[in-house]
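Hi support team,

I've been running sequence recovery on a batch of backbones for a student project. Most finish fine, but this one hangs at about 90% for roughly twenty minutes before it completes. I'm not sure whether the input is malformed or the queue is just slow. I've pasted the structure tokens below so you can try to reproduce it. Let me know if you need the job ID as well.

Thanks,
M.K.
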């Protein structure tokens, strides 16, 4: 990489500001009810980076292609191309009428193209100035986070008092992935080695970074700071002050224990079950299960599953233990599902196979050995690398992605200014990437805007108590599962016709066949509506049980079906008086037994006992078996289920034997 001369200073300054705004725009465009803040940020980053190449062309900036960029681009293209010729997993897509088109997934991973474009344009202008302006923005975001720590929120960005004080960052992990590398880079770009007093301005950021309480930051910050000391980039006194500020933030995090650090709804649920075994290192255990399943999948599909497919494919080979831990022993009703496997490199290996992983490794190796890159920023890049091993900052944090581009674009301090000509091939490739980014960013922005607007409508309706009407629903793009999920919520609350609700649920499952909400919702719509199809509803329920048999919403759906059958049995008993006493007895016995199983599945033991007591006189020569279960204290679900299987002919149809998951 080289520095350039010969362009007007004003034009270069304007381009540097514009480049920095590509980082500021996704950082500060905040909405407290955003459906997905990181996806919204990715759309804004793509929209901001797209015109930058055109601006660089207007200013006639020379453009060179740095080392390491080609393998990155090839990894993206390879992962995208897997859609064209790799057969879908039949266990997953046998449920679909056709394989979904690839372009929505390409759009969801288009931020890597933004990384390439931002890297090139930043390097062609004034990279140090762009980085300074960008870091000032991170400092302002950190300052606003500190205000929230102390109970102040002048812009009303914090959704609720229990929410982490991270706005405008999406969450604590996203904030740490940006602030720790940004803090390490700021020690270099603002020259605290020559002016130690500037360290004082960085101490609040260090305190806030520690107060976030992120495990990866506890590793990346001291490691990066140690590398800075080894490089002799900062004085020891400055390093000591920064580490003390970080430690003070950690001490405040543990001493004050604010509401957002307790995570009462999740951690309390865990502590009620197995506090000693699960409370400690729960996130480590979750990552262990995800990595174990991911490596098994990588062995089975060495060429990858396709770009952007992890989130929709993962439920089919998700370990049940990981789901249980992530959902606080199945008590989190949001059905938490990771968007990435908490490892950037594993993500690329899964979606692009071993070839994509090798290309990414080659890119890292060539970037590390690039002699024209400023190695003063290696500590910041190392911190980002550490975070990439435990999460996915480059696929799920557009601000971290932009910061990475700024750091990679910094030229070596001893590089001599030279004249160079633009490389035609580099310009053609860059403009081609930008032409892809603009429509991708616009589509994502449109989808996220509609999501946020509809989510605000739902929240407003819930707070005011007014009913929703179907005409308030916007025109939805047909490819995003979250928008269809919100659409179906609006339709259900507005009392829309059965066909509309069925279509919305089918669209959810078309784009996300493992969506538990879509599967259980389809079951309920088909079973409860007079126009529904019971066979279709049961098929949806069986699919949900194959993915997550122990999940509360799935169990409740089966319990509702048992209650439905119990009600039918009672109705048939009332209508069968002329069929004989024995037929009536059998139908009432069936109704009571199924109702008892539905009750115990919900944890309602007294109601279950009452239903079994009513069933006992009707059991005939099987009464002793019912009485044996009644004598137990407490009554276990497995006993009642075994009783139903033994005493009711054909019970396998209503209580199928469930696999752990599709993947076994």
């Amino acid at each position: 990489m080289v520095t350039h001369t010969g362009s007007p200073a004003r034009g270069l300054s304007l381009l540097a500001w514009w480049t920095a705004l590509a980082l500021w725009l996704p950082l500060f465009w905040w909405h407290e009810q955003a459906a997905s803040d990181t996806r919204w940020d990715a759309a804004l980053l793509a929209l901001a980076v797209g015109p930058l190449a055109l601006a660089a062309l207007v200013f006639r900036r020379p453009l060179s292609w740095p080392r390491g960029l080609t393998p990155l681009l090839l990894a993206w293209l390879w992962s995208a191309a897997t859609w064209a010729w790799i057969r879908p997993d039949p266990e997953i897509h046998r449920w679909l009428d056709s394989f979904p088109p690839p372009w929505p997934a390409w759009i969801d991973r288009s931020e890597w193209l933004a990384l390439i474009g931002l890297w090139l344009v930043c390097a062609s202008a004034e990279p140090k100035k762009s980085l300074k302006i960008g870091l000032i923005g991170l400092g302002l975001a950190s300052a606003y986070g500190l205000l929230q720590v102390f109970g102040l929120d002048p812009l009303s960005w914090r959704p609720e008092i229990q929410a982490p004080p991270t706005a405008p960052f999406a969450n604590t992990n996203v904030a740490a992935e940006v602030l720790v590398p940004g803090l390490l880079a700021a020690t270099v770009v603002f020259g605290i080695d020559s002016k130690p007093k500037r360290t004082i301005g960085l101490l609040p950021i260090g305190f806030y970074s520690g107060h976030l309480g992120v495990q990866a930051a506890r590793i990346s910050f001291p490691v990066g700071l140690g590398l800075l000391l080894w490089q002799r980039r900062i004085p020891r006194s400055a390093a000591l002050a920064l580490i003390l500020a970080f430690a003070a933030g950690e001490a405040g995090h543990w001493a004050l224990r604010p509401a957002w650090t307790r995570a009462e709804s999740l951690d309390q649920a865990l502590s009620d079950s197995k506090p000693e075994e699960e409370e400690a290192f729960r996130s480590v255990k979750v990552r262990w299960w995800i990595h174990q399943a991911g490596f098994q999948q990588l062995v089975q599909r060495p060429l990858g599953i396709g770009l952007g497919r992890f989130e929709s494919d993962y439920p089919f080979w998700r370990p049940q233990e990981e789901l249980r831990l992530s959902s606080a022993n199945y008590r989190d009703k949001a059905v938490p599902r990771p968007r990435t496997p908490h490892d950037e490199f594993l993500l690329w290996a899964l979606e692009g196979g071993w070839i994509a992983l090798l290309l990414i490794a080659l890119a890292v190796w060539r970037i590390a050995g690039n002699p024209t890159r400023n190695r003063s920023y290696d500590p910041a890049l190392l911190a980002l690398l550490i975070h990439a091993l435990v999460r996915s900052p480059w696929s799920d944090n557009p601000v971290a992605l932009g910061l990475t581009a700024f750091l990679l674009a910094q030229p070596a301090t001893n590089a001599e200014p030279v004249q160079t000509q633009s490389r035609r091939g580099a310009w053609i490739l860059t403009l081609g990437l930008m032409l892809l980014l603009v429509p991708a960013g616009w589509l994502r922005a449109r989808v996220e805007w509609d999501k946020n607007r509809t989510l605000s409508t739902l929240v407003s309706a819930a707070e005011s108590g007014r009913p929703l009407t179907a005409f308030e629903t916007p025109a939805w793009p047909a490819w995003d599962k979250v928008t269809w999920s919100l659409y179906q919520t609006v339709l259900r609350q507005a009392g829309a016709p059965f066909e509309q609700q069925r279509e919305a649920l089918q669209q959810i499952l078309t784009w996300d066949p493992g969506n538990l909400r879509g599967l259980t919702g389809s079951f309920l719509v088909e079973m409860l509506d007079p126009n529904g199809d019971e066979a279709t509803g049961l098929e949806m329920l069986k699919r949900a049980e194959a993915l997550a048999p122990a999940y509360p919403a799935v169990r409740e759906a089966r319990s509702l079906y048992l209650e439905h059958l119990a009600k039918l049995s009672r109705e048939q008993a009332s209508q069968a008086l002329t069929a004989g006493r024995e037929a009536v007895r059998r139908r009432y016995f069936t109704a009571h037994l199924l109702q008892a199983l539905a009750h115990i599945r919900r944890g309602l033991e007294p109601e279950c006992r009452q239903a079994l007591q009513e069933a006992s006189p009707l059991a005939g020569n099987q009464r002793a078996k019912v009485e044996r279960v009644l004598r137990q204290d407490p009554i276990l679900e497995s006993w009642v289920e075994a009783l139903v299987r033994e005493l009711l002919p054909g019970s396998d149809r209503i209580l199928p034997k469930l696999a752990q998951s599709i993947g076994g």
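--
Follow-up from support: It reproduced on our side and the slowdown came from queue contention, not your input. The first helix runs from residue 9 to 28. No action needed from you.
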